[in-house]
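hiii, so i know i said id send this last week but things got crazy w the move. better late than never?? heres the sequnce for the chain we talked about at the cafe, plus the structure i predicted for it. fair warning i was half asleep when i ran it
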Amino acid sequence: MAKCSWDFRYLLLAAAIAFIYIQMRLFATQSEYADHVAAAVKSENHCTSQMRLLIDQISMQQGQIVGLEEERKRKDEECRQLRALIQDLERKGIQKSFGKIQVPVAAVVVMACNRADYLERTIKSILKYQTPVASKYPLFVSQDGSNPDVRNKALSYDQLTYMQHLDFEPVHPERPGEIIAYYKIARHYKWALDQLFYTHNFSRVIILEDDMEIAPDFFDYFEAGSILLDSDKSIMAISSWNDNGQKQYVQDPYILYRSDFFPGLGWMLSKSTWDELSPKWPKAYWDDWLRLKENHKGRQFIRPEVCRTYNFGEHGSSLGQFFKQYLEPIRLNDVQVDWKSMDLSYLMEDKFVKHFAVMVKKAKPIYGTDAVLKAYNIDGDVRIQYKDQAEFETIARQFGIFEEWKDGVPRTAYKGVVVFRYHAPRCVFFVGPDSLQQLGIEQL
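okay and structure toks below
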């Protein structure tokens, strides 16, 4: 019985050892399986990560392929346009005719975009007076964009050279709500002027827009102006425009003024001035930018009393702003002035300040709120003092002239003085708070 008891114990011990061994093997197997599972999960995660990376790379490459395809289309379009332009130039014999030109006074460029009907009216007006002096004033049309009607209209004229500005860069306005067209216009102006001054190497350029007609003496006026521009470095540009050039405010087509306000709308610029402006040309609103004092640095502009350009563009980027009130009533000069016989030395900086001071000093001062009535009842020129912008705007509103200021300067002003006709021949001078001192006139 004792022996049987011991045998049973041995059996239990053997069974226990076997059980422990089996549990150890099972644990080892489970551990090994867990390691395999972990390795498999890790491998799966790696594969997933690699797959995502590969998908991202494929997406990026697809984007690049789309971008390259778009770029190829753009280049193909540019090449097509250039081939057509070269064929047209060859047909017209432009290169041959340009070889005969000696020294042009200035290139004339019409800035166009998408108004073919306006452009045709402008070109016809220019050719009416440019044809006899074509060698002095080579005519260009610069189109921004690819409007086919504008392009075909420009290319239909043998008397001009066509340029095309193709700009595919997206526009990013600096402020919400800004009109994108003003950014495109600024880019176009810079490109066109760079082409004319640096590629064609003109010494002066007259800039027109595709909604303008010109006066009979337009080219003689600018030829006389070119002499002033070259001889007086205090003149930044010559303009054919007077903001207060409406029929009721002008009379004498022979009179010119200096102005601290950039008039635009038909103006001539020299290459030396463009060398300064081109590197810092603004992204938008180039005309307002030119009116900043920091950009014209005390230099002034020559403007006529009677406009040599007429702006008929009621529809355009400015949405007809000011058209009915200020642009439509403009008087376009119809007198053939012999500018070559005119002595314009009075417009030189040192002479004009004295010349203008005499005019202002002779004018009779009037005071009070009924300035319009008093000006009407006084024979001869009158002057009206204003103390600040608000008072200027009040008085200007009574007479109906431009109230707008830019960078502290009223439109057309010279040393703060705005002059216009009122029931011609009398002149009215709006005189700023510091104008008499700037003109060297003692307070009266």
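btw The longest strand covers residues 107-112. thought thatd interest u
miss u guys!!
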